[in-house]
Amino acid sequence: MRGPEPISAEEVSQDSLYEQTAEDYGPSLDRLARAYELDPEARRDLLQEIHLQLWRSFACFDQRCSLRTWVYRVAHNVATGHVIRQRRIRDRLVSIENIETVPASDQVELATSQTEALERLSALIQRLKPLDRQIIVSYLEGMDGNSISEITGLSPANISMKVHRIKNILRRAFHERTFEERRFEEGGRHAK
């Protein structure tokens, strides 16, 4: 798989930068929007807003950072603003320190297929605060600690520590069974 093409000075225009971004990062931006918004209609609106803000941002893109860093920085900022504006989502956010205390009844059903597993993981990621979500989504997109550091402003060492903690917490939360699932299994064994 080849990476995005480097930008030459003569082809740097707002429209050409946007076109290159849409081609090179479109699927990544779709996944990013999915990580920030569960509702399909709101996700489409968020994705449209990300694309609009990216296009606008290229009017002042001065190439002091890579195009990839710029794209993710703008996209995460738009998505974070979206989350903050959505009171219903913001009220449900949990810090990585508190995600383990979320009642079992609030946990998404244990996944039985790959699609359900991705939906379950997305739901858990959506419960994270915006900065933690930004870090893990960037990590899942294959970005290294230095790139994530450029986007978030945190040190690479801090990024590494946060990624490790978030992965462990998501792993535990993903595999935790709800009280109802355990009760159903126990009831099924006693009925035999």
What does this structure look like?
The protein contains 9 helices and no strands. It is mainly α and 192 residues long. The chain folds into 2 domains: 10-91, Orthogonal Bundle (Rna Polymerase Sigma Factor, Chain: A); 94-192, Arc Repressor Mutant, subunit A, CATH 1.10.10. α1 (14-36) crosses α6 (130-140) and α3 runs antiparallel to α6 (130-140). The termini are far apart. Mean pLDDT is 78; it is low at 105-112, 177-185 and 188-192.
* Number of beta strands: 0
Question: Which radius of gyration do the C-alpha atoms yield?
Answer: 19 Å
Order of helices and strands: HHHHHHHHH
Tally of individual domains: 2
User: Under the CATH scheme, which architecture of the largest domain would be assigned?
Assistant: Orthogonal Bundle
Secondary structure: helix percent = 55-70%
**CA-based shape:** globular
The amount of beta strand, in percent, is: under 5%
CATH class of the largest domain, named Mainly Alpha
Summarize the structure.
The chain has 192 residues and is mainly alpha-helical. It has 9 helices and no strands. The longest helix is centred in the N-terminal third of the chain and has 23 residues, at 14-36.
